[in-house]
Sequence to fold (69 residues):
Amino acid sequence: MIKILAIIMTIGGAIALILGVLGIFGNNMVSLSPWALTILGGVFFISGVSMLKYRKDKPVQSNGDNTSD
Fold:
């Protein structure tokens, strides 16, 4: 679940970052502020990449599987 969320955040952040940078240096393709898109895109992109790098999805173990006496 965490990996899916991280991939969505990374892709969405990259798209927002590209649209924001294009809006700053050239034609604005969306009606939002290009600076806001760039900042939010950067935050979401960095968050998604760090979640992919550091978070691990672990399978859920039931109480009966991990008995050590």
About this structure: The chain has a mean pLDDT of 85.
